[in-house]
């Protein structure tokens, strides 16, 4: 949350990208302001090392992100943009971290992640990533509730292609669902193609159909391991001991002779 706050204030729509010098001079103050507002306990002397490490991480990530935007000649269309829409008849909503346009007229829906790229890349490669793909659907077929100005409205009316991009702050890598959008001279970007959400969407549709038929599918005891293999975080299984009280036993594997 603190890292997102710094990025939100450094990279704003309708203004030039911050210079490297500006990032270095402003990141510390922006982080301190965010800490005072959101996590004042971090001001204690016992948290000094964590504060310094977080500042170094955020500053390094911001400098690399700026370099990527400059090399792609990207323009910021929206920051913290609220979207609404419908998926399989179910109202959905979300808030994008950033929306970019490229000189080609194409648009990127961006989500910052304060983590490394390994699990997210696995999730995208296995086709189970959903978050930004749903953002894209809302952006194309839904409604921009707030955080989008005239430049974004114009770009959407012109009907440019919409891609999704995750920027992983901890190893400064970008992961996209595009192919050939990013010049080969731009390092730190991996284009993974258009199939990043196909399996996840199938699974969600199955769950919605089950609920509409009056069924509530329960988890199995081995679900956490199953989802971990495809890069999906099982927050509900980890954060609520109640969920596993109603989980079905994992199937017993028979010995093969």
SSE layout and pairing:
Blueprint: H1 2-10, H2 20-38, H3 48-72, E1 75-87, E2 90-101, E3 107-113, H4 118-125, H5 131-141, E4 143-148, H6 150-157, E5 162-168, E6 173-176, E7 189-191, H7 198-212, H8 223-229, H9 235-239, H10 241-245
Helix pairs in contact: 1-2, 2-3
Q: What are the salient characteristics of this protein?
A:
257 residues; alpha/beta; 7-stranded mixed sheet; 10 helices; globular
Distance between the termini: 52 Å
SSE-based structural type: alpha/beta
Major sheet characteristics:
7 strands, mixed
The rounded Rg comes to: 20 Å
Estimate percent helicity: 40-55%
Uncertain runs are none
Assign an overall shape: globular
Query: How many alpha or pi helices?
Result: 10
N-to-C series of helices and strands: HHHEEEHHEHEEEHHHH
Strand order across the biggest sheet? 4-1-2-3-5-6-7
The percentage of residues in β strands lies in 15-25%
Mean pLDDT: 92
Q: Work out the number of β strands.
A: 7
């Amino acid at each position: 949350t603190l890292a997102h706050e710094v990025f939100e204030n450094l990279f704003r729509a309708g203004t030039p990208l911050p210079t490297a010098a500006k990032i270095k001079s402003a990141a510390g103050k922006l982080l301190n302001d965010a800490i005072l507002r959101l996590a004042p306990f971090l001001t204690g002397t016992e948290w000094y090392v964590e504060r310094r490490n977080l500042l170094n991480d955020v500053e390094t990530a911001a400098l690399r992100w700026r370099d990527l935007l400059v090399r792609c000649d990207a323009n910021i269309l929206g920051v913290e943009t609220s979207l609404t829409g419908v998926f399989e008849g179910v109202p959905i909503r979300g808030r994008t971290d950033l929306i970019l346009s490229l000189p080609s007229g194409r648009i990127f829906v961006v989500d910052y992640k304060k983590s490394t790229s390994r699990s997210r890349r696995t999730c995208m490669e296995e086709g189970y990533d959903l978050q930004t793909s749903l953002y894209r659907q809302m952006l194309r077929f839904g409604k921009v509730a707030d955080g989008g100005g005239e430049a974004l409205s114009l770009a959407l009316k012109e009907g440019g292609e919409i891609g999704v991009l995750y920027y992983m702050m901890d190893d400064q890598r970008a992961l996209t669902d595009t192919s050939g959008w990013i010049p080969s001279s731009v390092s730190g970007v991996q284009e993974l193609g258009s199939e990043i959400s196909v399996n996840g969407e199938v699974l969600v549709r199955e769950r919605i159909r089950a609920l509409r038929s009056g069924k509530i599918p329960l988890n199995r005891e081995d679900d956490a391991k199953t989802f971990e293999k495809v890069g999906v975080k099982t927050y509900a299984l980890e954060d609520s001991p109640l969920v596993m009280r109603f989980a079905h036993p994992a199937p017993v594997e028979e010995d093969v002779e």
